[in-house]
Amino acid sequence: MKSRILCGVVLLCIYLESFTQPPLVYPVENTGASYTPPVLLPLNQLPVVDPLTDPFMWSNGKGRSTKFKDWEKRRNEIKAEIEHYEIGRKPGKPDNLTASYHALDSTSGILTVQITVNGDTMSLRSKVSLPSGKGPYPAVIGMNSPNGSIPADVFTSRNIARITYTHNQVTTYYNPQNKDPFYRLYPDQNIDNAGQYAAWAWGVSRLIDGLELVQESLPIDLKHIAVTGCSYAGKMALFAGAFDERVALTIAIESGGGGATAWRVSEILGNVEKLGATSNQWFKDDLFQFSGLNVSKLPYDHHELMAMVAPRALFVTGNTDYTWLSNPSCYVASQATLEIYKTLGIADRFGFYIDGGHGHCAIPTTQRPAIEAFVDKFLLGKTDVNTDVAVHPYREIDYQRWYAWWGKSKPVFPGEEDNIKIWLEAECGSVGDNWEVITDANASNGAYVTIKSGLNSDPNKAPEDTPINQVVISFTIEKAGTYNFLAKCIGPTSNDDSYWVKVDQGAFEIANGLGGTTWQWGRLTSATLSPGQHTLTITYREDGARLDKILITTSSASVITPEESGKNCR
Fold first, then answer.
1. What are phi and psi of 196, to 5 degrees?
2. What percentage of the chain exceeds 90 in pLDDT?
3. Range of the domain at 437
4. Residue 481 buriedness (CB in 10 A; 0-12 / 13-18 / 19+)
């Protein structure tokens, strides 16, 4: 009888646990700080994963778990990977931190946080705007402005306090120096091994530390704090919210590459903020070893950065009028993030809104209801609002192919064996007189092409559109689809590794970061093509770059074997 009762109690606990919602926020910066970090491998030992990495797979590749009870450990593995490969270490709360609040009047004041580490001291001063009435107040921390790019009345009409995070007090935007306050406090961190997003996220956490210390004079509701920003500051808000579990709501507006996008997806798009094209001031130097086709060796991607916010709330936006923001990548990363939130049973805590017809960082009236819904639910605690938001124009994009392999053994795209592959030799195209064909036994077909020494274009403008400057390769498409253009290249230095390319009569685009000191494959561009005859035109940008072979394929894989000889040589 006793055993039956015990069994019943266990089953009841399991039943009730299945209906228990994960917390909306936590009282500490990182609840999983005690977990042992995973072993992190160098580039040459990392496996190739062409689709989006599995967010539930343990870092050692030995198993996976979709149970929420395991998420905190997995989240800290992702945190360790992003710190190690991308932004550098984000230090925890310093032992010596004090805060004070000086009221200027009944609705405004200055929060000052003083931090001492390794005998060096810095201060953060933030303007605070308070609603009328008595607290505690929910609060939004805006990156470099009181409310980011979101209209102030979204917050003031709801009695939400607004706090300005002045990020240059930590490290200076677009001009980081090792003498900046963050790097002075942590001498082991410098502008090479710690990007500014680690430093800026650390600063937001120290502001929250300060808010915890001044509750009597500045009554902020610590369970209802949001962070927001736009563009580079949208990335900043995303990193801040992902790395501090005291943030209940993260709103990243038009954050672009390095934010709410996926490095892998951006790599197959056109002139967007790819990993190799983003600012090396924002990220640590080590990240850029993953540029080009090496992105497939990155052991995570930014759907996992976004998922680090879970189980807390996240809302992201894009803007289709600005190509650089890599909006299709934002869409795929957002759908993958939504899949993670669904798996954890909290789909209503993530939303995305990708539209156009407005300026960068401008919030159109059509977007406001979605933002307001997230604010109402996750800062004000209203449960009767709809936060199932997934607005986008990309009905034709098959986002599921990027994560169809999750939970399966092999990280490949669906139908990879059926992909079209067209192999072509550069020297067998129409080679202009400003180019040279060089014999090389290590090159495919025994030769490659290179522009004559001394010919370099304006870095922002293709040279004259004339045959003498170009290599033109004709090819035939039998089946309509989206095709990726890969090139086997040598680019001996960062000043000798790029071309201008166009497909048919399109505009020239830059193909940069191609190759190394030996023959390597890199990505030129992509295009949606109809059946029939087409041309790929390559013109010079930097002399010294060498071009051997072209592959035009419907595959998104970074390594395609077996390699075949070009079909355009006679």
1. -65, -25
2. 89
3. 419-553
4. middle
For residues 460 and 494, what is the distance between their CA atoms, to the nearest angstrom?
16
Q: Work out how many domains the chain is built from and give that number.
A: 2
Choosing from 402, 437, 470, the residue where a domain stops is 402
In a domain, 32, yes or no: no
Residues marked as catalytic: 231, 360
Answer yes or no: do 348 and 285 share one domain.
yes
Per DSSP bridges, beta strands 161-165 and 120-129 are antiparallel
Distance (Å) of CA 45 to CA 48, 262, 297, 455, 516: 10, 22, 9, 38, 18
373 and 500, same structural domain?
A: no
> Do the domain assignments include residue 59?
no
**Position 417 confidence tier, pLDDT thresholds 50, 70, 90:** confident
SS3 27: coil
Other CB atoms within 10 A of residue 292 CB: 26
pLDDT in tens, 53-68: 999 999 999 999 999 9
In three-state secondary structure terms, 317 is strand
The verdict on 426 and 398 lying in the same domain is: no
State the Cα–Cα distance between residues 301 and 504, nearest whole angstrom. Answer: 33
Shared domain for 508 and 376, answered yes or no, is: no
Classify residue 375: in a domain, yes or no: yes
Give tens-digit pLDDT for 424-465: 999 999 999 999 999 999 999 999 999 999 999 999 999 999
| CA angle 527–316–130, rounded 5-degree value | 155
- In which band, very low, low, confident or very high, does the pLDDT at 4 lie, cut at 50, 70 and 90? low
Say if strands 390-391 and 509-511 run parallel, antiparallel, or are unpaired: unpaired
pTM exceeds cut of 0.90: yes
Alpha carbons 12 and 29: distance in angstroms, whole number:
32
Are 473 and 550 in contact by the 8 Å Cβ rule? The answer is yes
Does 396 share its domain with 455?
A: no
Alpha helices in 323-454 (DSSP H): 327-343, 368-378
- Which of 341, 375, 402 terminates a domain? The answer is 402
379 and 431 part of one domain = no
Q: 547 by DSSP, 3-state: which?
A: strand
Q: Please give the distance of CA 548 from its chain centroid, rounded to a whole number.
A: 32
Two tokens, residue 24: 């909306």
Give the CATH number of the domain where residue 168 resides: 3.40.50.1820
**Same-domain check for residues 149 and 286:** yes
Share of the chain above pLDDT 70, in %: 97
Q: How many CA atoms does the CB half-sphere of 124 hold within 13 Å?
A: 31
Tell me the C-alpha distance between 128 and 1, whole Å. Answer: 62
| Residue 361 tokens, joined | 């960082």
Pair of tokens at residue 359: 């300026």
| Within-domain flag for 119 | yes
Per the CB < 8 A criterion, the answer to whether 55 and 340 are in contact is yes
385 and 352 assigned to the same domain: yes
Q: Which residue in 148, 87, 90, 91 sits closest to 282, CA to CA?
A: 87
pLDDT higher than threshold 80 for residue 5: no
